[in-house]
Each structure stands twice: as C-alpha cells, then as structure tokens.
Design a protein that fits this description.
Helices cover 44% and strands 15% of the residues. It is of the alpha/beta class.
Length: 367
Amino acid sequence: MSILQQLTTIDRLPEYYRKMTLDEKRERIWMIKKRLGKRLFIPGHHYQRDEVIEFADVTGDSLQLAQISQDNKDAEYIVFCGVHFMAETADMLTTDAQHVILPDLKAGCSMADMADINQTEYAWEVLQDLFGESILPLTYVNSTAAIKAFCGRNGGATVTSSNAKKMVEWAFTQKERLLFLPDQHLGRNTAYDIGIALNEMAVWDPINRKLEYEGDIKKIKVILWKGHCSVHEKFTVSQIEQFRKDSPKTKIIVHPECPHEVVQAADLNGSTHFIIETIRQANSGTSWAVGTEMNLVKRLAKQHPDKEIVSLNPTMCPCLTMNRIDIDHLLWSLEELEKGNFHYPITVDETTTIEAKFALERMLQRK
C-alpha cells in the first residue's frame, strides 16, 4: 500500500489523550515498556521531539536505526519514531516475524516525496535517450523504498550523508555519469568535493519534466534531481554573514543538505553524526551556530551547557513532518499494540524489498 493510500486510512487521535496530564502519559508508556520488555523496541531519530526521545531505546540516524533494528532479534514490535521512509527501511531489513509500526502516518519526509517512482521512471527514459547506458543512479537513503528499488535494479546504490563522497567516487568507476536522487544539494556538494565543476552538473526538474542545463550536454557528469530538504534549504549565506559580524568567534557548522553556497561559507559541514561528534569533542567555552534541524540543535545545547550552541537560523521551526510524532501518538500506538492492533504497520512488498536491498548492499559493501 502506498503512503497516499495509507494516509486515507488515518484515524483521528482520541480526544482523551489530549486531556491526560503529561505525567499520566509518561507513566503509561513506561508501564507498557516494562510489560512488553524485549518484545518492544523503540528507535528514535535524532530529529524527534525530546518528549519522544525520552522513551527511545536507541537514538541515531535513519539507516543506523534500521540496522540496529535488524540486529535486534528479540524485538517483535519495532515502534519507529522517525518518518515513513525510515520505517520502510527497517521493515525491509527485519524479518517477517517482526512488525514495524509508525505512530503517526503523517510523519513523512517532504524531500523523499519529491521523487516518486512514476516521475523517476519517466526521467530515466528521457535521460537514457539523451545519454544511453552511460548513467548510474544513486539515491540518498532519505528516499522511498520504491526509489531505492529503482536504483537497485538499475545497478545503482544508496548513499548516506556520511558516505556520499565514497559512493559518488564509486559511481564514477562504474559509469561516465550519475543521476543523484532526491536531494540536489547533497548531490551538488558531494560532487563538488570530489572535483566535479558546477558547470558539469545539470538539474532534472520532475515537475516540468525537463533537464535544466545551458551548454553542451556531453559535458554533463552529474544530473541532480530537483529535490531538497525543506528545513536545510532555509539556511542562508546572509545568516552566516550576520554571525560573522555579531559573533566572530562562533564556528558555523552545517549539514550538506544545505545549499551549496551555504556549505561553502560555513566553517565545517557534515552528517548529523559528524555535527554531534564535532560539538561533543569541542573545547569548553566554544560557540557554535548549527545549520540543521531545531530539535537536535536544542538537544545539543542541553547536553553541552559548557558551550554556546544556537541555530544558524534564529527563526527556524522544527521539521513539520519529523515533528509529527508526539507523546500522544506514541502512547496511542503502544496501547493499541497491547490490544493486538498494529497502528500503523509499515510493510514493503517482497519485490521492492529485494531490489531495494540490492542498492543498500552495494553501499554497505563499500563501508
């Protein structure tokens, strides 16, 4: 069942969850965790709310959490506190006897939704007509299972923000060109880092169904899907310039999902793990402006009171879809689970799973 079909089946959160006190909700969740024991596993993504992370058995990035779920053979129920594509990956990596549940089906990812399989298949036909068999598809793990499967059956692979450079380098050992889905910024920043010039990169516009490029298309080495993270695209060079003016000692660290000019203007850029570790290892008394999701920035500030940690964008709001899962939906999901109801189960069909795992395994073989 597609995410759009699933969204039509969403039930409204019962009103009595809104009327409970926070302490009552917390107590109920802890009791359910105690009753279910090792049968229940709650992975929580770094961008989730603190009220949800409190109950997570482990926190991490999307693929990391799916792999930890895969290794946890005791868990019958994996209540994934993240977004839809993350739960899909967990379902593909775990066994048929394990059930992956997303507490709120509206917890999606705008970036992943910017590349659906129909758009991608159409683009592939056009690009094959233009460039023949010279293209290899790569997709960021922040994509749907169908897009991962597309890359898998066409000889491509997945990438993470941590290993994107290594995977792009690998792609060029396979083919002359690559199609990078669905985040143009991570693709552009990574390709630039390995020496691909900006004028050797084109953009595929899935809405207008055309290739955006001026010049001789034979010079194109990278075709970037016109997608982006709605949070990271909000960081700007002017914000960096303001920090440079007001607080010259503040270090600027951003995620490579930010626009190219922002990444170039920052002091450091890297994956969520890189950002967390860099700040953890930084000297006491240092000051940091962080260009990533607000829930994580606030958590880092709480965890490191000896350092000044603020968002690069002072008006930034948390990711709307990452922020969908709250303590109410988590409790509702767990109470339904105890009644024998899987609310809401995330399942990926066998063919998609097999093909998507080809793409994942090609990446994992190059760790």
